[in-house]
Amino acid sequence: MILSLDMSSDVPIYVQLRNQIVTGIGKGELKAGESLPSVRQMAQDAGINSMTVNKAYQILKAEGFIEIDRRKGATVRPVQQTTGIFREKLESELELLSAEACLKGIRREEFLDICDRIFCTMHAAESEVTP
Predict the structure, then answer these.
(1) Residues 127, 131: Cα–Cα separation, whole Å
(2) Which residue among 7, 45, 76, 90 is buried most deeply as judged by most CB within 10 Å?
(3) C-alpha distance across the termini of the chain, in Å
(4) Cα–Cα distance measured from residue 120 to residue 113, given in angstroms and rounded to the nearest whole number
(5) With contact defined as beta carbons under 8 Å apart, do 21 and 65 qualify?
(6) Helices 50-62 & 39-46 angle (0-180, nearest 10)
(7) Coil/strand/helix, residue 76
(8) CA dist 55 to 30, 48, 50, 58, 126, Å?
(9) What's the predicted TM-score (pTM) here?
(10) CA 45 – CA 36 distance, rounded (Å)
């Protein structure tokens, strides 16, 4: 997986890193059980501070996307069953995106087509979900 971090973006680097790893997992570029680079290696490869990588990894762990073991390092977790908390977050974020789309003149059908096209690129959704 190739990272593309925008150092001039208003989005913090650790958030960009988190988002790209989640997208990589969703698209199947990173598989369950696959190891991520160590914090030091990721920081060196991306040209960023190791504390930034550590923060992204800790968020990914808290959200259930990765596991961190002192001996094995960070590995991708299997797809998990959706929780009520995640559904609430999803609805909240979709509400905001829907409002922004409406305010920018995007029609409902176009919005749903965009959502469907992007969702269809996610291969993790096709995998069997671990309860």
Answers:
(1) 12
(2) 76
(3) 27
(4) 10
(5) yes
(6) 120
(7) strand
(8) 19, 12, 9, 5, 29
(9) 0.83
(10) 12
